[in-house]
Amino acid sequence: MTDFSALLVPDRGQAARTLHIVHPDSWETWLAAQPPRSRAIVAAHRLTGRPGNRAVLPGDAPDDWAMLLVCNEAKSSPWRFASLGEQLPEGHYRLADGDPEAGALGWLLAQHRFDRYKPAENPAGPRVLLTPDPARIDELVALAESVALARDLINTPAEDMGPAELQAVATKLATECGASLTVTMGDALTGEHPLIHIVGRAAAPGREPRLIELEWGQSDHPRIAIIGKGVCFDTGGLDLKPAGAMRLMKKDMGGAAHALALARLVMQRRLPVRLHLLIPAVENAVSGPAMRPGDVLRSRKGLTVEVSNTDAEGRLILADALTRAAEGGNGTLPELMLDFATLTGAARVALGPELPALFANDDRLAGDLAEAAGAVHDPLWRLPLWAGYDEMLRSDIADLDNAPEGGMAGAITAALFLQRFVPPAIPWAHLDTFAWAAKPRPGRPKGGEALGLRAAWAMLRARYAR
User: Fold this and answer.
1) Cα distance between residue 57 and residue 64, in whole Å
2) What strand order describes the sheet that includes 54-58?
3) Beta strand pairing call for 357-360 and 428-432
4) What is the mean pLDDT of residues 438-465?
5) Are 459 and 372 in contact, with CB atoms under 8 Å apart?
6) 388 contacts: CB under 8 Å, gap ≥ 6
7) Residue partners of 96: CB distance under 8 A and separation at least 6
8) Catalytic pick from 75, 241, 269, 461?
9) 76, 116, 172, 262: which has the highest count of C-beta atoms within 10 A?
10) Which segments of 247-401 does DSSP mark as H helices, in order?
11) Does residue 315 carry a catalytic annotation?
12) Residue 188 buriedness (CB in 10 A; 0-12 / 13-18 / 19+)
């Protein structure tokens, strides 16, 4: 992984080139304060102070120069000058107006690439940003590392990122952070987590389904549960997906990637909580043991589920994981449960690829997440757990139907399905995230993306950090 700690260092007066990040509203004031040679360059480039205007400004010495970027994003935006982190040559840089604040995160992430299979051509050397606030470096580096971890996991093809590989990532994380790890796998799931077993039992040997559980923290700290959907590849089961819909199904473990990345932040930043991480990891494959449309399955909670569509498998494995999370441990129930899942295409139809759908059974939790999302520019949009649609989940022969007919309100009915496995007394939030950037933008290359991760971390930090 990129050594982010080498890209953001304390400003001790070392030699560095200057970055002028100018808001359009301040353009005239900034320009009037510049020396004649800089104003001449601005005039030569016909810059008018519009967002996106940029130029190299001459310095006093022949090899001295500074960089100008006109940007209308707030200082709190991590992407404010991420484009410079991608494009500038190797060297040290400092902002003319002082503290880079949140923009340092975009600077760091702009220099990270997923290069496991294709090394970068003509890679640039490190672009090092100086900051006058060294106390924030560790936090920003940890956040960049966790975002990069989520991206890399999602980008890795299913051949190299199956249930066993997800388990290996969790094992490495547990070892690094002093956590305990428990894995229930294969046929051992049948009695305890039957839905996870049934969804994943058609996979090839070596890719058996499993529930990965990590525990960390002191027993007297507030208990929280983080759950991530780990469908490492989704064929759609016997209700097979068409080829176009299957192309990106390596990212169907994006919820697990988010959960692992968030757990990493919680542990590395020593948040005073008792963490319970749960990753139900499966491959929804097609073979003789695959579940069939019309099957009735019994969940860990005891509720029965009729399978109307084998492509609605994510909610099944999450149901058992949510049930397990709600049971807590050592007599202590979680005071908060949070799950991430690439669950429904309906959420993308409603909100598009960049805006995760937020569902919550607790208004305070939903409000805290929304506030955090706005503060860190990691947007979420709340959709209702509309009780009027609960009847869509009815089955003639079971307690629940996993895929109601009609295709209406699909994101809501999926969230309502999950809600059946969460005790009403436990505050719970469900993030239906796309986990993918369809087009590249500064600091955010095309591919796997952490959408909702930073908002969730900001919420947890605001609640629990001392």
Assistant:
1) 9
2) 8-10, 127-131, 91-95, 17-22, 65-70, 54-58
3) antiparallel
4) 97
5) yes
6) none
7) 18, 19, 20, 21, 66
8) 241
9) 262
10) 254-268, 314-327, 345-351, 363-375
11) yes
12) middle
Report, as an integer, the average pLDDT of 120-143: 94
Residue type, 399: D
Return all residues near 37 (Cβ < 8 A) that are at least 6 apart.
57, 58
Q: Which helix (H) or strand (E) holds 138?
A: helix 137-155
What would the pLDDT profile of 165-196 be if each residue is shown by its tens digit?
Answer: 999 999 999 999 999 999 999 999 999 999 99
Q: Provide Rg for the chain, Cα atoms.
A: 24
Residue 8 contacts residue 131 (beta carbons within 8 Å):
yes
Region for residue 339 given its phi and psi (left: phi exceeds 0; alpha: psi -120 to 50; beta: otherwise): beta
Do residues 340 and 452 lie in contact, with contact meaning Cβ atoms separated by under 8 Å?
A: yes
**Token match 């506030």: residue?**
371
What is the DSSP code (8-state) at residue 452?
S
The C-alpha angle with vertex 452 and arms to 381 and 329, in degrees rounded to 5, equals 110
Rounded to whole angstroms, the Cα distance separating 34 from 25 reads 16
Q: How many CB atoms lie within 10 A of CB 345?
A: 15
CA angle (459, 460, 461) in 5-degree steps: 95
Class of residue 98 by CB neighbours under 10 A (exposed 0-12, middle 13-18, buried 19+): exposed
Beta bridge partners of 147: none
The number of residues making up the chain comes to: 466
Measured from the Cβ of residue 97, the count of other Cβ atoms closer than 10 Å reads: 16
**Which structure tokens are listed for 263?**
């757990």
Q: Which of 274, 315, 324, 454 is catalytic?
A: 315
Q: How far apart are CA 293 and CA 395, in angstroms?
A: 13
Query: pTM of the full predicted structure?
Result: 0.97
Going by C-alpha positions, the residue among 415, 437, 438, 429 that lies closest to residue 460 is: 429
Residue with the two structure tokens 């994981």? 321
Told to judge if 446 belongs to the known catalytic residues of this protein, a careful annotator would answer no
Please state, for a pLDDT cut of 70, what percent of the chain lies above it: 100
Distant-in-sequence, close-in-space partners of 139: CB < 8 Å, separation ≥ 6: 269
